[in-house]
Records
---
Amino acid sequence: MAQRPGFPIKFSTQEKVAPAKAPAKKTASTNPQGLGLDSSAVRQRMVQKLAAQGLKDPRVLQAMGAVERHRFVESALVNQAYEDTSLPIGLGQTISKPNVVARMIELLLEGADGKLGRVLEIGTGCGYQAAVLSHVATEVYSIERLKGLHEKARSNLRHFRLANVHLLFGDGMLGYPKGAPYAAIISAAGGETLPQAWLDQLAVGGRLVAPTVTATGQQALMVVDKTDQGFKQSVLEAVHFVPLKSGIS
Ligand code: SAH
């Protein structure tokens, strides 16, 4: 039986070294290549851990097992790519913990059959969550206000050739009216209140999941369902997301 890698795995030096014959492949991305087989086993360990933490939706577990998170982090952090931790992605921003990504997407899918339709993500960051979303939705519109990260996400995602992910540079507080109405809206940045544009652009029957500051001044996950009768809002667990900011930079 093949030996299972430990958790967290330390990728061997051998795997980190790019083959001498293929320097032309090292273009825009500095992410290490060739971790495929081993990283798949490590991802399965991550998925088992997510399941043990209570995540149940097979669509989410499948997506989390499929997306190579190590391709979205700096090479110095690759060994931590499958740990349940948030990691810096540059410009003072962070990629969320796998558990939080999975939890939010599970909330988006709750009560929905099969795949979601069009989804809007606010805060593309490095593009990891957009890649996970691409497995559970027909179309993903992901918007980022920092040009540097928008470009980084584009470069990170190129490898995956995800035809259903549309990266947008702009202020996500305004949503993206051209893609509306959305079956789901998910924010990776937390504001003081929920922008009206998000509520407007949510489809009836759709769901919004976003970290937002609550009455106690703490950030918590907010779930909003848009129904024929209006909005239904629930406040869930406390979370720690980077701030939602207006404008572009
Ligand atoms: N989903 C991302 C997480 C990135 S962190 C990932 O998988 O990497 C949250 C991101 O939200 C940051 O990149 C930040 O720049 C961005 N952000 C904050 N306010 C925003 C706004 N108004 N519009 C778009 N992006 C915003």
---
Amino acid sequence: MEQAKPTLLSEIGEFGLIDRLTANRKMVQSSSLMGVGDDAAVIDAGDHCILVTTDLLVEGIHFNLIYTPLKHLGYKAVAVNLSDIYAMNAEPRQITVSIAVSGKFSLEALEELYSGIYMACDKYKVDLIGGDTSSSVTGLTISITALGTAKRDEIVYRNGAQTNDLICVSGDLGAAYIGLQLLEREKELFEKDHSLQPDLDGNDYIIGRQLKPEPRADIIQLLKDNGIKPTSMIDISDGLSSEILHICKNSDKGCRIYQEKIPIDASTAMMAAEFNIEPLICALHGGEDYELLFTVPLESFEKLRNMKEIHIIGKVVDKEDNALMLTAEGNSIQLRAQGWDGLLERE
Ligand code: ADP
Ligand code: MG
């Protein structure tokens, strides 16, 4: 008998893998309101809900210690988890931190990592309540779990977008990705010639966006203060294109995004030009921006239009009308989770 060939993970991708590993599982606890498939899981705790999210950071995959100060790494590891709690319109409360460390790390190095972790805890008023510690064969792995709370009717999922809702994004996109390209370039130059000092002057913004992202607690507060509750929301960790498709898929909708409305900082565009990359590619597929992408009813337009940090970039349409981006020239392009052949071919 011929044995079935093992499936390569590269054939199914990250989301395909998660799907294959978790689909068809029925939850048996009535308190499990949301399991796999949103920014955080939601647990019914009586008069409120508890939200749980976890993220794993692996040296050599998610960070490179050549250009990532340990303090920044600690801060970022917390920030990206809190971002997932805010993306549910919830308040983060506690974190746990687990680390696996090889012999190359000293106590002082790990204290530096923790100083960043505590800095983020202080800023966002969360408590570190536990974790686990192990040795590792090589390098550093950090796993952080964040817990949050929200009233049940305040929680915003990825699946609530309605046809004609406005699609909004906070801040600007693509800077973290182009910041990473710059850090990688300087690292390679340094590796070739150790006498070279990194030339990062004038690029504080894009480098800061890569090394020290902030979860958008301020946007959640701003929306609350103005009585706006998004119909759906997600944080942008994998690029605008991938995240908008998550909202569309979970909400069973399509979308229209207008290219010229996508917020890109001038410093991102300038550095992208230096690398010969379309700034739009950084925004659509770069990732690690940790901005919020959300949909709101059309009635919120008047309130939103004057909010400097929020950009209306498109609208929700019926699923049959697809997920498209309209370019400045009037072309429509199918949004995809990765790579965007149409634009790349123009180079
Ligand atoms: P995010 O980018 O918001 O952190 P992910 O893309 O990492 O979310 O994960 C998507 C969903 O899949 C989440 O609900 C997450 O909890 C779940 N998930 C990811 N990896 C696994 C796994 N190995 N086993 C079970 N669930 C997972
Ligand atoms: Mg997320």
---
Amino acid sequence: MHFDAIGRVPGDPILGLMGAYANDPNPRKFDLGVGVYKDSQGLTPIPRSVKLAEQRLVDSQDTKIYIGGHGDAAFGKVINELVLGSDSKLIATQRAGATQTPGGTGALRLSADFIAHCLPGRGVWLSNPTWPIHETIFAAAGVKVSHYPYVGSDNRLDVEAMLATLNQVPEGDVVLLHACCHNPTGFDLGHPDWQRVLDVVRSRKLLPLIDFAYQGFGDGLEQDAWAVRLFAAELPEVLITSSCSKNFGLYRDRTGALIVCTQDTEKLLDVRSQLAHIARNLWSTPPDHGAAVVATILGDPELKSLWADEVETMRLRIAQLRAGLLEALQPYGLAERFAHIGVQRGMFSYTGLSPAQVQELRDHHSVYMVSSGRANVAGIDASRLDLLAEAIARVV
Ligand code: LMR
């Protein structure tokens, strides 16, 4: 038969955890796997600003006709401003354009195909470690993948090793950087580190591709955009992938953008024509709903301010959970060992737990996290921090 030679591949290591967690009957289970925000009730709610925008759309939308290859122009405008800043010179001089994509993952796939088709022979450099899907997306597009060191086996950010490798990267290659809330480690570069990375990117003539999936979850909506705006202001060409999954809670509505910054408007038009052409072969035109919601929220001062407050609430809760877990680990003499949890930013913590310890946590304590030791801090139930700390103490 035609399909005889087809074998089975393992399920996705992150998404697979959702099913395993759901099937665990233990009422004391912890879901620290897939990167979704949870509130104090353990729910991933739809933000109120999103609900209000959706209601407006239901009442006012009068067609479901296709939106163009670059998506909704209103969305493109507001996402450009959210990422690059409303006072961005690039926007004012028409040197930056957003192409709407199905989620941040879609933006990454579009970037990968753009590199493969329009910049043939260029490799991409990923942090070690990185989000596992970065590896497979670029490989699927036929782009050669290499790595620069980021966090070592001692679970510390190693900026010197990172810079030393970037200094050896062949001219013209693409370097993928995490704007904030590094996935999976939670370790972010400080401003002086970013400045040094910028110097290397400039001197080696590398093309930066900045993945910006967690805007607002690190130090704040504006603060988290600092490195993106620095690179966009200082370099002639930058690619940025933006996601609305987390900060708008639009996970399943697949809302994101690939923002391209170029030296002049003519080049922007060239590149955007290629992106629309590539996107046509990938998903034709992007899904509308999530982007229409984002455009509605960011285009209305009241909704925008409500949304910004909601993002800040999520951010502060994550910060409190980090502090709370460290406090809960104190009685076990583990606060120092896990002090990095307080330094890391965003949803994720590279805990430093080994795959065997992660397995033990899952098998004996129903604590679910990625085998790399990545825990989604935003999934912790604050009322059961003691229980989580006790489970961790039992496996280390
Ligand atoms: C994660 O890393 O858990 C999230 O980005 C969700 C995903 O798609 O993997």
---
Amino acid sequence: MKPSRLFFLVLLAAAAFAVPPKSHSRSKSLTAYDDQIKQLLSRMTLDEKIGQMTQVDQHYLKDPNDIATLALGSVLSGGDSDPADGNSLEAWTDMYDGYQKIALKSRLGIPILYGVDAVHGHNNVLGATIFPHDIGLGCTRDADLVEKIGQITAQEVRATGINWAFAPCVAVPQDIRWGRTYEGFSEDPKLVKELGAAEVRGLQGTGLDDPDAVLACAKHYVGDGATVYGTGTGPNHLLDQGDMRIDEATLRKIHLQGYLSTIDAGVASVMPSYSSWNGLKDSANKKLLTDILKQELGFEGIEISDYNAIDQINKDYKQAIEASINAGMDMAMVTGQYRQYIQDLKELVQEGKVPMSRIDDAVTRILRVKYAMGLMDKKRSPLADRSLQATFGSPEHRNVARQAVRESMVLLVNKHKLVPLSRDAARIHVAGAAADDLGYQCGGWTIDWQGKLGRVTTGGTTFFAAIQQTVSKNTKITYSKDGSGAEGAEVGVAVIGEKPYAEMFGDRKDLSLDPADIATVKNLKKAGIPVVVILYSGRPLILDPILNDADAILAAWLPGSEGEGITDVLFGDYAPTGKLSFTWPRTMAQVPININNQKGKKYDPLFKYGYGLK
Ligand code: GLC
């Protein structure tokens, strides 16, 4: 072998060793607590172990003292599960502290984990900073920003005492007719992998014992975004919770990526999906829940079921519980049937159908997280640190959300370089149902589970308020919902889009624009003025009917409470940088269309993945 080649090979080998070791997860291994846990396990009754494996929606607690008498491991507020005393920062914090104080009265005094869907800020609580939903964050391609958003979200969640956020959603939606498309960062597994890990780093902070950190939850494991159209759980639920029909290689290549990166980032809980893989419910699939997630990937934390997801496994609830717990589920998210769950699981153990080793593994994982979060440290109080309330919904937090809005905007069309607009225009006519409505602007999972139309559904700045604050004092802003009366204005701006929805209620057969929105754009055009369209949507919609009338089109996704981020782009304070995180189809005939499913087909969408005018 010629010396030069040998020399080259030696050099290459040396370089390989010089490569720094694979980045290790930021938080130390959760197994560090296993000796202490073994001690505690030996003192726990079967009832107390099963209690830890139970998470009850607080709305369904028959008696809050059940938290102590049943030694519940966790309580949650699912969608619309607000405090009885109303929706305010104080009421949420008092509710959390109230339940936690009861938990401390249990025989072993093990504190609860309290979970909420803080999926774009602490979005259940009035006055919280509401960030763009994940589809918009995907368009920023900005992992540092997503991490920062996670940090702020954790701070605002902890300001209410709550310590578990059911986020990030690392779905890789493949069919935008799915109602949860907007909860995904992208159709591209590489982008989901990167941003999912960034959100976990933000939420979980420097380590789970960080008082500003919350327990993150990678969801929904696995392939929730791969379900086939028509396999959803109901007549109108076309895709959601349906069946994924792909081979294992595809599952790993596309849908497992967000779990690899979030586990590496130290995520300490994972939520198995309602959906199925080739006919078998993920939440009862041992290969997924144990062989791959726990053994192959080395996940050391908690597998928390989705909301009553165990019920869907078998109409015989006890058999459903047996299948799910034996498959590897560690904690069940349940509502009114929580006593039944506890009784059935106890019987299953006594009948030898669920081995005690499985119970001990589940409780060990739950206690690992509680030790890691400092909840078992008697010197630390698990009650809310109300000093964090000072920054709840603060201008500083809102400025970060505003930056996220700026970076999420994608400029799709800009004829004659209409955008940026002049802030000195004599008159701008604003139109559209969504122009002055935080409900449209924030989308689902905002104060209400399904979101709710309305100008002021929480603290924030609508587009209409933002434009009035942005233009010069000589500029006249006029408004009509349908675009009429725009004659004489220098430019018309139509703010249109999807009404809010969440989960299966967003499944759609057709993604056409609302006819009223199309009419609004056409009315502006009839006034003989240039027309800008701003689109609020949880996914790409079919734009064909307005392409001739709109001189500029900005995709704003579901930007959240800080509408000024839109006017920053519209008036040129921030040059658009957003790039599509999903392929934008020309027609419904092309759907589903994405960068992963074009084998052999011509990829000819209206706008390609990654498109965005600068
Ligand atoms: C919902 C969603 C899940 C959420 C859970 C608790 O049905 O599927 O994303 O975290 O229930 O609200």
